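Notes to self, Amine dehydrogenase:
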Amino acid sequence: MTLVRPLARSPVAARAGQVAAAALLACTGLAQAELPVEQLRTEPLAPATAERIYLTDPVMPHLVDGRVLVIDGQKMKKLAVIGSGFSGLTALSPDRQWLYVATTYHSRLQRGERTDVVEVYRTDDLSFSHEIVIPPKHVQGLMIRALMQPSADGRFLLIQNATPATSVTVLDTQTRQVTAEIANPGCWGAIPWPTASLRFSSICGDGTVQTFDLDAAGASAGSSRSVRFFDPDKDPVFMHYSLSGSTMTMLSFHGTVHRITLDGNAPSFAPTWNFVSDADRKQGWRPGGFQLFEVVGERLVVGMHAKGFEGTHKNPAEQLWTVDLAAKQRVARTPGFGTLSMTRTREAAPKLVLLSGLDNTLRVLDPARPASMRKPLKASEPMGETPVYLETH
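result:
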């Protein structure tokens, strides 16, 4: 009979077996031991400064999942992300204590029962406060300033509708009730008057401004139509606007400056002028972008691109032109950084915050320091997926 002997184990293999056995015993002991309960906590945000940025991103590759990115503009770091649903519109209250998000939800994400709401968030800790149901009519498009704004005193929220018939929903933020739906046929946007909390205006397709009055309860109290201030066939205006006191600045597709005073009994219009020279016009220089310009003091900063034609009015900036509004002439041409949108900070010496349409980065410029217009004071890494709209605290 042949005897079969077991294979001899090497010292290395024996040691490996001992280590594995010890590990198994240790794991068994840990499984029997009770782990401490993890304590969850919320870290408070640092107090908001004038440099905090709210960046609206509709995330166009998956529109049902929009976001608002809250960014520390001092460190250029992301603080938080707030969901904004499908094609959400965003606005801050005049006192900067509340962030409003008007949005749409469907019960089956992209289908099913539709619910439109205004969601209200506290800006001190970015916590959700409450929501108010609104008619399922609010415009679903890329955010611009004229689509949703609070009244000057913050009581009413004005929301542009499109079904495609145009109207404005008036929402009382105190009673949390819709007080009116005001038709603005042939017109677009709800621009609150800075010194009249019960009045707002729309820009109309025939080149006029229609102004609407509210009563103390937020119901319609009449309207009036202005003279024609631009020719929509020859030189239409961008819907973006910038407010300085009671003066609203708007630009045309070809560089005409419109300054409208929203005060008194009706809008008043200053004489128009154009900052694009004949030589620049021959090279096709035109304004372009989304929030394509900003007024800081008596200076206008606008994104410009060359070889423009019908349809290039959303092109990112190849250059930034600084225009002296008092002298009515350009005073600087600086790099454009691919700027798509811009806004100013709310401080004694405002800075400009730029959003690049090329790589989603943010830059901060000081319009009072010409050197910073060529080399930003600070810049961020890319933010979001398809961001379009900026607002500062």
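- Residues 254 and 286 are 6 Å apart (CA to CA).
- Helices lie at 11-32, 278-282.
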